């Protein structure tokens, strides 16, 4: 157990945006909400899964929707916990801890803000180990858990409770409601007891995000190469250095979908890379060979070439000079069910999943 | 208080399809479900609003969606009461009676089937006095009631509870969910206590539907003109006799939308009439003058020219020989709030509302 103060939040915000692979909401929004809540309610206790009792109710609190909308539709303090309040009422049980459903942009820190307001701890874990665009793309789903009672709320005061038969139905309903709620909404799903949480979640990911944030911020201060330091820490791969020369982004079906074409610079000056995203980066394709260089569920992150600062799919601008990196996903995503749930075919990409390590091996010489 | 048996159901089914102005779901489906339930559980007690205690909970049970889908997606017995069961659980109070939210096709009889299964009475009343396509188009909304706790369910076992801030938000969410549920779903909204129900509903509309059914079936047996008998009973107007020469129907936004062009026969052989519908018939336009001959919220019904049998917007076929009739709507719909809620502008028709009596007066000689 330890406490999160504003300094920790600054680091988590940066690290979560790296792990968020371009999505998970805008990190600035989540940071501001968490800092504001900590200033008002005090530091937030963060516990590990080992500190959970078997019957402790752990509730994920998140924002669902298109990041493009999320940055313009910031949640009020009331909205922040409206879904949780409804859920507690329905279950007749109080949450013992709040957790992030994903590590990414705002969705890693909105739970911290909610925990501050409710005066309960946040759990140092999440259910993706990264960010994914759809609600059923969680380790709970891989382990056969249903989303249970799912609650949603918006800034107008609308609240909603569903008992979908499984994770896919939850996603379908929640997405349709999110669109009606204006493209972004607050949600609680997969509220489970400690005994299940401990087995299913990916532990210590808030701490991992914090460590990444420290590395990136620290390297800048100490004149080190932040990307290199990060790749060392994460056993990651540098895929490409380039400049964004074409970005297409649309809000469709409640997601921010699109692609970005990067023209190589430095060692990559004869190559081009195309990134495909649905809220998160999901596929990095060599534009000449049409071969994937990294593919979901592995993590693809875009960082500022100089500062190492993570760039969201929403925030990438024409002309941005970036480095594209990739990290192996958690082993849970490399199982048949993991690949079925969040692999390339699910998103309609005509490629087989290949671990980023193998792809890097193939390309040799492109290794960081 | 009296009991509804299968004979009453046969009559209500026909009359409700007339009052349903082409919508409210397929009358055959509702009839079959009600008859099946009565055979299994026994006759259904029907009470009037005068028999309600002030604190009796009265719950509308309905099908929401496109009639085109509803006829292919018949509810199971379980689905019939799943929304009601969830609502009772949430409110912690049992329904004293079930009521139709609208008088129309299946939606007047599904409540009878649900009442049979639950062993409670059905209320002889509804909240439209006709059928309308959208959830907020109810007298409860006109009287300032919110939909309260709204529940929905589907045949897969998905259930959902909403607290929308008002009727329009309820419609938006419910429609989006209905589309995800496959275009048709079961719903309870505006569950209110007797004290409010008595003041807001349009009373005795199941009995009115039954009377209309008796007239149409009886006229056939006795060699009378069923349309003439019906117009006498309802103080209605015959608008047009003709043959359907063009029907366009599409499922859009969870509704069956479209129009039908009728070529005149008999006295109307030099005229053409165009009907516009969104689940229900909403506008009858003289094709030559482009002037409305009847317009929502007044009731427009299409009947078989020979038998007087009501024809739904979904059931109208090319070449059908029909008579188009109109009846004045309940006075509640002719108030400013009524017109705002379900008048021509709401549906995007570029006409002012004019009562069918005035339009008939204008056209003189066209009166039945």
Give an overview in words:
The structure is a homodimer of 368-residue chains. Chain A has twelve helices and 19 strands. Chain A has two domains: 2-205, 3-Layer(aba) Sandwich (CV3147-like fold); 225-363, Beta Barrel (CV3147-like). The model of chain A has no long low-confidence stretch (mean pLDDT 93). In chain A, the strands form five sheets. Chain A has a seven-stranded antiparallel β-sheet with strand order 17-16-15-14-13-19-18. In chain A, strands 4-10-8-9 form a four-stranded antiparallel β-sheet. A three-stranded mixed β-sheet of chain A has the order 1-2-6. In chain A, helix 1 (6-19) packs across helix 9 (205-222), helix 2 (27-41) packs parallel to helix 5 and helix 9 (205-222) runs antiparallel to helix 10 (226-234). Chain A has helices at 6-19, 27-41, 67-70, 77-91, 110-118, 139-142, 167-180, 194-200, 205-222, 226-234, 336-342, 356-363; strands at 2-4, 44-47, 57-60, 62-65, 97-99, 122-123, 125-126, 150-153, 159-163, 184-188, 192-193, 202-203, 237-252, 255-264, 272-278, 280-286, 292-295, 299-304, 321-327. Chain A is α+β, with helices and mostly antiparallel strands. At the A-B interface, strand 9 and helix 7 of A face strand 9 and helix 7 of B.
């Amino acid at each position: 157990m330890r406490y999160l103060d504003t300094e920790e939040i600054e680091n988590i915000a940066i690290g979560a945006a790296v792990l968020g692979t371009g999505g998970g909401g805008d990190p600035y929004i989540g940071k501001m909400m968490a800092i504001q809540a900590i200033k008002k309610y005090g530091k937030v206790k963060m516990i590990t899964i080992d500190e959970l009792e078997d019957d402790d109710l752990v509730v994920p609190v998140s924002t669902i929707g298109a990041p493009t909308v999320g940055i313009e539709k910031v949640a009020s303090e009331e909205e922040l916990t409206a879904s949780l309040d409804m859920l507690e009422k329905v279950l007749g049980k109080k949450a013992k801890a709040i957790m992030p459903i994903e590590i990414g942009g705002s969705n890693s820190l909105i739970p911290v803000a909610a925990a501050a307001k409710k005066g309960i701890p946040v759990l140092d874990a999440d259910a993706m180990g990264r960010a994914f665009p759809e609600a059923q793309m969680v380790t709970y789903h891989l382990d056969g858990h249903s989303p249970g009672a799912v609650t949603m709320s918006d800034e107008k005061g609308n609240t909603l409770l569903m008992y979908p038969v499984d994770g896919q139905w939850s996603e379908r309903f929640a997405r349709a409601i999110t669109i009606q709620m204006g493209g972004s909404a607050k949600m609680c799903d997969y509220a489970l007891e400690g005994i299940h949480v401990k087995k299913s979640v990916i532990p210590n990911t808030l701490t991992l995000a914090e460590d990444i944030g420290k590395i990136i911020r620290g390297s800048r201060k100490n004149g080190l190469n932040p990307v290199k330091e990060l790749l060392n820490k994460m056993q990651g791969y540098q895929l490409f250095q380039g400049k964004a020369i074409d970005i297409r982004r649309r809000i469709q079906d409640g997601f921010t979908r699109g692609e970005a074409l990067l023209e190589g610079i430095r060692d990559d000056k004869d190559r081009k890379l195309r990134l495909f995203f649905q809220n998160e980066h999901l596929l990095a394709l060599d534009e000449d060979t049409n071969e994937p260089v990294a593919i979901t569920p592995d993590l693809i992150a875009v960082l500022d070439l100089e500062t190492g600062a993570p760039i969201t799919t929403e925030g990438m601008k024409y002309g941005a000079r970036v480095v594209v990196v990739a990290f192996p996903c958690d082993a849970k995503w490399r199982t048949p069910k993991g690949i079925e749930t969040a692999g390339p075919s699910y998103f309609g990409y005509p490629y087989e999943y290949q671990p980023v390590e193998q792809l890097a091996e193939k390309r040799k010489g492109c290794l960081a």
